[in-house]
Amino acid sequence: MDYCHAQDMMKTRVGFVLSSHVTVRDVSYQGIDTIRPEDNGALCGGGAFETKGCAENDCEASDVNNGGSDGIGSVNVTIERVRLNDYHYAEDSHLVGASVPGNYNCGTLNFKDECCFCKPNGVRSSQVGVWVPMSRNVEGSRHILVRNVVSSSTQADGVNLHGSVDDALVQTAYFQNTGDDIYAVWGAVMNPTNVVFRDSVAINPGVLRPNWYGNCVATYGLKSVVFANLTCRAPTLERPIPSPGDPKPRGSINIDTSMFVFHSSFSAGYPEGNSVKINGWTFEDLEGSSYRAGGGSMNEPAPGKMAWTRSDNGVVAPYQTDAATETSQHINIVVWGCADSCRLGYQGTSPSTPIGGLTNKNGVAHSIVQRGSDLISFVPVELAAGVLVVSALAALARRSPWSLRPSPCETQGLIAAV
Predict the structure, then answer these.
(1) What pTM was computed for the model?
(2) Which of 182, 183, 211, 227 is nearest to 99 (CA)?
(3) Is the peptide bond before 249 cis (omega within 30 degrees of 0)?
(4) pLDDT in tens, 384-400
(5) Which InterPro entries match (predicted)?
(6) Is 187 exposed, middle or buried (0-12, 13-18, 19+ CB in 10 A)?
(7) What is the pLDDT of residue 57?
């Protein structure tokens, strides 16, 4: 089937292509694809909602644009209060992750001659929830807002921002049961900037192609991105399928390896001065039990364990990166905040009084608040300039009857009780 290479997007890729200054609000959309076409393995889209751009994932591959558009990136697009692929979900949910005999012959890169997910999984869905394709203009797509979008399933990604993108916000979204990554930034070498994913949930990435490919959050090249207060629920897999052609053991497994994965594949570029900020996260298995660094594997995944890495500012967080080791690129990753229990503690479930702050031995800033008879330290979700104005010792000297204890998510022994 010609899906990415088709000359008529109207027949093969049903969905909305949104031009500039367009708002979609308060609608429900149901896709009916039950398979990811073989020529869409590297993803050319098929979103329920797309902005204007190229039909292929590389604009140089053909002169065909999506939906008969001019291929020029869209500006000022809002998609909010939308439900995706939920109409048939109750009927199809028993097929999510179900085994399909003969569907897992993925030992080589010759996918045309072997059946690597060549059979339908039966889960009626769109290919992608929201797809921002590579466009024909240098500026790309700009000022994109995706808010309050809920998706029950997709054959490929949940949200994918591809190519040149500036000022994109994905907020309070909920995506589950994808066949690929849930939230992805695929800039390649087009340097997307000012991209923010905030207060959103990702559950069970990759399950529509079981054991094959997908993580809650993934990047493939960017200039700047912020991930703020995201929740990921993903399983540890007993028998993931190795990807052929990848170096082993590193890189052979590409599904459910960590919460955030920063890739060097698919032409990913991370230019000098790139910036990744992770401001708070919640990382759990499908039953809601939290993953902990102590039970994981440092820097790369191991059987039955998620990967954790120490960030540039010394915080151990649930992410892995292959770009720094397999290419000369360095990704500048800074982590603030921690798991949801700590974030809620910082916001406060009982009256708290900010009284100061300190920097621990790893250079990580903490704020000090008084709650009842305790002085409690918290890693701030976002650190504003000038917040550290009172030293912890001075605060303790003034309030010697109180004790200083770490918040629940501080597992590094960074602050001792006094």
Answers:
(1) 0.82
(2) 211
(3) yes
(4) 333 332 333 344 444 44
(5) Pectin_lyas_fold, Pectin_lyase_fold/virulence
(6) buried
(7) 95
